[in-house]
Structures are given as structure tokens and as C-alpha cells.
Design brief:
Helices cover 38% and strands 14% of the residues. With 304 residues, the chain is α/β, with parallel strands linked by helices. Helix 6 crosses helix 7.
């Protein structure tokens, strides 16, 4: 190989020199040539923020069995829809890591208050101070329920012997009676509370019609017993013989006789469980006449 062939081989790699094929290598790319690889642009979908202006909701647990909270959670995907679109859960012992009761729009209070527990008394007063609307959730918060029958003597806290419904200590705006209230009823009250605070005039009217009977229950006080079932349900011809009152009575003071409840007044502890559980104890024509509009508003609100 001559000098010229050696120079070509050095510059351009080995090639066919003198009629013989040599192993060829690809020529090196010039140093001044830069190949840029364009990055592919992926457009991320914009996050769809909820249009609704959320309200703040808290669950305050007093002395109770936690059955109302279980009923609240039994809304499943409906609960997720409420928390996603309409409400921020700012306080709940089991679901939110918050130590002190914050300011909130709606406070759902479960259970009655042990007046020997000064912390519980302070918390219920603080709840009234920090909440715009206080809701008594369940028969214990509304009327005392079985806690009225408590005699104390618990092994861990024997001094805890006197329990009062929250309405005896603070002003309550709405009652959700029942032991426990149904998940649908809790869901409906949450939606209607939102519409009452944030809705348009038509929605506020529907929400007012739905919540008014429960507001009237709160104004009526914290006393309820089998006599109220007699006066307000049976004597008004509203009893349908469903047996809910008998099933709810914790001391078996009510039995069903010929399709109607028979109340043993000597056994009644006036806990209010029967009256709270009766589906017609707070019967209202204001709700019945607007039932379709109310349910349409609730169904539209619960669409995922």
C-alpha cells in the first residue's frame, strides 16, 4: 500500500485498495454535525376542578355506638361524590387527622353528652361556637336514646353515669332521627344542606321544604317517648303497622298487637328511640307535595 492509499485509509477507513476488498467501516460523522432528537410533546389533560363551591363538614363523636358513622360511611360511592363535589371533611375522629374542632359550615354530632366528662361538655360547646349549622345525627344526639337508661358503674369510668342529648346543652338546628339513620337520609340532608347554603333560589326553596320538618323536630325539644307515637302517629291515623317502633325500643316496652303498637308505659324509659325510628313521626305535606322536585335535585347532585 502506497502513501496515498494509506492516507485515504486513515481518513476514510479501509476500502477496496488495489482491486482487493477490504473490511469497510462506516465513516465517522463530522464533529461539527449535531443531531438533535426532538422530544415528543404529550399534552396532559387539564385537571377538571369541581364547579361547586364546597362547604366544610365535620363529624363530632360524643357518647354513642358509632352506628351513625357506619351508616354515614355506608353511602359508599355516594359519599365519595359528596366529598369530591360538595363538601370538605375537616373534622372526624376516625377519618381526619385533626385534634381540635375547627370552624365549619355543618357539624354532624353523633351521640349524647356525658356531663361528668368535662372534655365532652367543652367540645359540644365548642362545636356550637364553630359551626354555622349543628345537626343532631341519630336518636342518641336527638333524644338521648338508650343512654338515658345508663346507670354508670363501668369498670373503666364508673363516674360516667349521666347522659344528655345535645339539645339540652346547645341550640341544635336540625335533627336526623333514627337508630341509626339510613345512609340515604344522611346523604339527602348533606346535599340539601349544601343547596340551602350555596344553591340558587329554586334549590334553596326545595332544600327548605325538605329540611323544615327536621328543623321543627329540633325546635320541639329533646323529650320523646311512646306517648308521642300515640299522640302524633297512631291518633292521627298515620300508623302503617311497620313495627319500626317496637324493633327500636331498647327495653321492649312496645309490642305489636293486631298490627298496631302496644306501649307499656311502666317500662318506657322515655328515650325517644321509638319516635325517632318511626318513619311518620315527622310527616310533612310540605315534603310530600314537592317530593318529585326534591328527589330530582338529589339525583342530579349525586351524578358522578
Amino acid at each position: 500500500m502506497g502513501i496515498l492509499e494509506s492516507l485515504k485509509a486513515l481518513l476514510f477507513g479501509k476500502h477496496d485498495v488495489g482491486g482487493e476488498k477490504q473490511d469497510q467501516k462506516p465513516a465517522d460523522k463530522p464533529a461539527d454535525v449535531i443531531v438533535e432528537k426532538k422530544a415528543s410533546i404529550i399534552k396532559e389533560p387539564k385537571e377538571e376542578k369541581p364547579v361547586a363551591d364546597k362547604i366544610t363538614v365535620g363529624h363530632v363523636h360524643m357518647s354513642g355506638c358509632t352506628g351513625c358513622l357506619v351508616s354515614f360511611a355506608d353511602n359508599y360511592e355516594g359519599l365519595l361524590t359528596i366529598l369530591d363535589k360538595y363538601a370538605d371533611l375537616v373534622y372526624c375522629l376516625t377519618l381526619a387527622d385533626v385534634r381540635h374542632i375547627p370552624e365549619m359550615d355543618v357539624a354532624l354530632v353523633e351521640g349524647s353528652v356525658c356531663i361528668q366528662d368535662h372534655i365532652a361538655v367543652e367540645e359540644i360547646i365548642e362545636t356550637r361556637k364553630n359551626a354555622k349549622i349543628v345537626v343532631a345525627l341519630g336518636a342518641c344526639a336527638c333524644y338521648g336514646n338508650i343512654t338515658r337508661f345508663c346507670r354508670g358503674g363501668q369498670q373503666n369510668q364508673p363516674q360516667h353515669e349521666s347522659y344528655l342529648p345535645i339539645g339540652d346543652l346547645i341550640d341544635v338546628d336540625v335533627y336526623i332521627p333514627g337508630c341509626a339513620p339510613t345512609p340515604q337520609q344522611i346523604r339527602n340532608v348533606c346535599v340539601m344542606a349544601y343547596l340551602l347554603l350555596k344553591g340558587n333560589d329554586e334549590q334553596k326553596a326545595l332544600a327548605g321544604a325538605y329540611l323544615t320538618p327536621m328543623m321543627n323536630l329540633a325546635k320541639a325539644g329533646t323529650e320523646a317517648c311512646g306517648c308521642d307515637v300515640m299522640y302524633n302517629v297512631i291518633n292521627q291515623g298515620l300508623c302503617m303497622g311497620c313495627g319500626s317502633c317496637a324493633a327500636a325500643c331498647p327495653v321492649r316496652a312496645i309490642t305489636m298487637q293486631y298490627g298496631k303498637p302496644q306501649i307499656e308505659r311502666d317500662l318506657c324509659i322515655k328515650c325517644g328511640a321509638c319516635y325517632a325510628q318511626c318513619p311518620r313521626s315527622f310527616f310533612s305535606f310540605d315534603v310530600v307535595n314537592q317530593y318529585e322536585g326534591i328527589m330530582e335535585a338529589i339525583d342530579a347532585a349525586m351524578q358522578p
